[in-house]
Specification:
single chain, alpha/beta, 4-stranded mixed β-sheet, 3-stranded mixed β-sheet, about 30% helix, globular, CBS domain, CBS domain-containing protein, CBS_dom, CBS_dom_sf
């Protein structure tokens, strides 16, 4: 689990999300309001929402305007979550049951404390092959 969380709010612009993804090695951002988890935005969600012409010679005003969309327009709301007391086996079960690429880890008050990706699971299984 990664505990280095980067969060955005529902009203943040996609320009902010793009800057975070461009400058950090993250594939998912947690959407938080008043310390509560409300959703997740993936780099794929962002790519679908933005014009492919941004930063190219064909860029138009309308392309640039797609950066002014807000997180609430593309975020996955009410994501599948993992409780902080869960095991690696619990995480594997959720990945196999739901079509998700990350699992926010939350405490009993729905506050994010970490995030687990399928890559984290693979790394853990390689290091600890019997740890489930």
């Amino acid at each position: 689990m990664s505990t280095k969380l980067v969060t955005v709010t529902l009203d943040d612009k996609l320009e902010t999300v793009k800057e975070i993804f461009d400058n950090l090695k993250f594939h998912h951002l947690l959407v938080v309001e008043e310390r509560k988890l409300l959703g997740v935005v993936s780099d794929r969600d962002l790519l679908k929402a933005l014009s492919p012409n941004i930063g190219s010679a064909r860029e138009t005003y309308q392309d640039i305007a797609s950066l002014n969309k807000r997180v609430h327009q593309i975020a996955t709301r009410h994501p599948i979550v993992l409780q902080e007391t869960a095991t690696v086996d619990d995480a594997i079960h959720l990945f196999n049951t739901h079509s998700v690429s990350c699992l926010p880890v939350v405490d009993l008050n729905a506050r994010p404390v970490g995030i687990v990706s399928w890559r984290d699971i693979l790394k853990n299984l390689r290091i600890n092959p019997t740890n489930t």
